[in-house]
Structure to design on (310 residues):
């Protein structure tokens, strides 16, 4: 197979200034295949605990340029609408377009649900979810005008339900739903929106796991960030064959996480007891269908015209 390249494409990778980090690995791979890259990172979230060192967008951009690639650094925060706009402007000013957006920036603090403060919970939503919303919303009109775009949102396997991860996982699960909705809206406009569920030894892993954590030791030994990036790059490529999918890419293992619905049963004289009696049919996975985006015909819905709240 000939190399998949990104010549002439502009890619933004948010939160890509750390080393080691997933964002850096994605940015370096895309640049090595011809993309001009915006390396975005605020350096360090002032409220995060236990993060080793500081990320530097400029350092990663320098690394890319030193290797013969094209890159600029950007230090705006994804967590505000203005920050999202500024990041997209950096791409437009430097390279004149935005073709690929990898929403990778995030924060993570683990805690039992009852002890996490409202502030810490809200911050996961503001950075991990709304950060992607603001960057997508700023990039969207440019992708629409071009009739082309690739967006990759970074979810996490925690969204499937991990104890002590409610805030982080909620932000990632919502990001998965955002991915599906934008995939449905983007499809007729040449914009594909997918999700990546990575895993790697990074500053975030060091900050969230105890030094003697077996998982941290495993990720240090077996999960270099670079092994998550080829799947991200494929989802970012013109040839990307899917839309609205979540691809897991950890340590060289590439898989698909998907939504599915069982056949269940239909009973119009439904009672609580019918549900109880026929529960096995509700749960039976034989014949279950994968739920694709756009499977439901919404053309007859006739959504009311939007009026912005004042
Ligand atoms: N490391 C893993 O095993 C793992 C597993 C699942 C998902 N993820 C996800 O992968 C992505 C990359 O994480 P990582 O492990 O490389 O961690 P990381 O901490 O090295 O990378 C995240 C980067 O985002 C930056 N950042 C934080 N807030 C920002 C903001 N407001 N604006 C711009 N940048 C900001 C940080 O400075 C940091 O450099 C994250 O979305 C993370 O949730 C990581």
């Amino acid at each position: 197979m000939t190399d998949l390249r990104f010549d002439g494409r502009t890619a933004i990778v948010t939160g890509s200034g750390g080393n080691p980090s997933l964002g850096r690995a994605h940015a370096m791979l895309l640049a090595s295949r011809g993309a001009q890259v915006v390396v975005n990172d605020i350096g360090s979230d002032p409220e995060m605990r236990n993060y080793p060192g500081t990320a530097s967008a400029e350092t990663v951009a320098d690394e890319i340029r030193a290797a013969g690639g094209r890159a600029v650094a950007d230090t705006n925060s994804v967590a505000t609408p203005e920050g999202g706009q500024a990041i997209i402007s950096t791409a437009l000013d430097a390279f004149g377009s935005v073709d690929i957006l990898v929403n990778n920036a995030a924060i993570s603090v683990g805690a039992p649900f009852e002890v996490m403060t409202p502030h810490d919970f809200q911050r996961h939503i503001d950075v991990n979810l709304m950060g992607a919303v603001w960057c997508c919303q700023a990039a969207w009109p440019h992708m629409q005008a071009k009739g082309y775009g690739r967006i990759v949102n970074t979810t996490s396997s925690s969204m499937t339900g991990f104890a002590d991860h409610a805030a982080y996982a909620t932000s990632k699960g919502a990001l998965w739903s955002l991915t599906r909705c934008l995939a449905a809206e983007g499809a007729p406009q040449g914009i594909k929106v997918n999700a990546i569920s990575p895993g790697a030894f990074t500053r975030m892993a060091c900050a969230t796991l105890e030094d003697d954590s077996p998982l941290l030791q495993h990720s240090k030994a077996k999960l270099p960030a670079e092994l998550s990036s080829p799947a991200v790059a494929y989802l970012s490529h013109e040839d990307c064959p899917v839309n609205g999918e979540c691809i897991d890419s950890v340590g060289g293992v590439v898989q698909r996480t998907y939504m599915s619905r069982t056949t269940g049963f239909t009973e119009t004289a439904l009672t609580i007891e019918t549900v109880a009696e026929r529960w096995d049919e509700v749960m039976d996975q034989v014949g279950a269908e994968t739920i694709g985006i756009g499977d439901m015909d919404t053309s007859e819905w006739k959504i009311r015209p939007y009026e912005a709240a004042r």
Q: What stands out?
A: The chain has one domain: 10-257. The longest helix spans residues 118-146.
